[in-house]
Amino acid sequence: MKKLGPFVVDIALVLVFCAIGRRSHDEAIAAGLLRTFWPFGTGLLLGWVISVAVAAGREGVSAAQRFDGRAVWPSGVIVWLSTLVGGMALRAVSGQGVALSFVIVAATFLALFLIGWRAAVRVLVR
Q1: Alpha-carbon Rg of the chain, whole angstroms?
Q2: Which residue from 53, 55, 61, 109 has the highest number of Cβ atoms inside 10 Å of its Cβ?
Q3: In the prediction, which pLDDT does 1 show?
Q4: What is the pLDDT of residues 30-68, one digit of tens each?
């Protein structure tokens, strides 16, 4: 669960975020979900790459040994910020909306989803 499981959970939660957004604007969920998901999914993937690189930090210690995708810090925060910033940047260059109100809503929901589940697991495992 420390490696692949959290990545799958993150993908699922970003898909849920995108589906909720489409539904709240009365847009067809299935028809446009990929168009809404790809910028955030790409930002999510980038966040995971950065998180693994940060975990690898010290020479001689492999990222696979040190990396914990369930950690709130730094993994969860890096994944959240990368998903948000990368997602918004890719939406902007692809002609999708990036209104300030949307950025605020996205930041809040993505933090709740991507950091929140990690915090809940941490509390429940203790």
Answers
A1: 15
A2: 55
A3: 58
A4: 889 999 999 999 999 999 999 988 888 865 567 667 789
Residue in 83, 102, 84 with CA at minimum distance from that of residue 24: 102
Claim: this prediction has a pTM higher than 0.70? yes
* 68 vs 52: CA distance, rounded Å: 9
**In 3D, which of 125, 109, 119 has the Cα closest to residue 75?**
119
Contacts of 84 (CB under 8 A, 6+ apart): 43, 103, 106, 107, 110
Whose tokens are 């940060």? That residue is: 54
User: What string of H, E and C letters represents the secondary structure of 26-70?
Assistant: CCCHHHHHHHHHHHHHHHHHHHHHHHHHHHHCCCCCCHHHHCCCC
User: Cα–Cα distance between 28 and 119 in angstroms, integer?
Assistant: 32
Q: Where are the domains of the chain?
A: 4-125
Average pLDDT, the chain: 92
Q: In this model, does residue 92 exceed pLDDT 80?
A: yes
Report d(CA 64, CA 35) in Å as an integer.
32
d(CA 30, CA 33): 5
